[in-house]
């Protein structure tokens, strides 16, 4: 069962990652891990609540629950419509065409601020007023 869970986990993570838009990939990864955690809690609750005397009976219980989940997944897969990730990315780029321009301007500002900060002369008592003026100019940028 552990080998099956490993194979299922890798496949599910890859599928959810490939079907998500770029700005939702981390959310889907977190959702996947959350459902794994909830599933482990469900197994814990069922194992403690069932109080089955034999291990084979517990195995049959979990195997039947697994078959039920497989049937549910088969139904969901039948109605699933595959989405092409490149089309999703194209939609996001079409909805926000100047997003890249905003990001590049923001990065340019950050780079120039970091560059000016590195090139700033060491401050001593005679240049305190000039360094204050430089800081004001940089904050305005």
UniProtKB/TrEMBL annotation:
Region listing for Disordered, in residue ranges: 91-141
- Answer whether the UniProt record assigns the keyword Glycoprotein to this protein: no
Q: Which domain of life is it from?
A: Eukaryota
State where it is primarily located.
Answer: membrane
**Gene3D superfamilies given for it?**
MFS general substrate transporter like domains
Where does the UniProt annotation locate this protein? Membrane
Q: Does the keyword Ribonucleoprotein apply?
A: no
- Keywords for this protein: Membrane, Transmembrane, Transmembrane helix
Q: Which InterPro entries match?
A: MFS_trans_sf (IPR036259)
Q: How does it sit in the membrane?
A: Multi-pass membrane protein
- Transmembrane region positions? 27-47, 59-81
Q: GO CC annotations? A: membrane
Listed Basic and acidic residues bias regions: 97-122
Query: What is the name of the protein in this document?
Result: Solute carrier family 15 member 1
The species this protein belongs to is: Channa striata (Snakehead murrel)
């Amino acid at each position: 069962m552990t080998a099956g869970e490993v194979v299922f986990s890798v496949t599910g993570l890859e599928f959810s990652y490939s079907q998500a838009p770029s700005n939702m990939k981390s959310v889907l990864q977190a959702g996947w891990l959350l459902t794994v955690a909830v599933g482990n809690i469900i197994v814990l609750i069922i194992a403690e609540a069932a109080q089955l005397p034999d291990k084979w009976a517990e195995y049959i219980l979990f195997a039947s629950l697994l078959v039920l989940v497989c049937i549910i997944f088969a139904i969901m897969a039948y109605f699933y419509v595959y989405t092409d990730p490149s089309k999703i990315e194209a939609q996001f780029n079409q909805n926000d065409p100047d997003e890249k321009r905003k990001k590049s301007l923001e990065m340019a500002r950050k780079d120039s601020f970091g560059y000016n900060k590195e090139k700033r002369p060491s401050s001593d008592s005679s240049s305190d007023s000039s360094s204050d003026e430089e800081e004001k100019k940089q904050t305005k940028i």
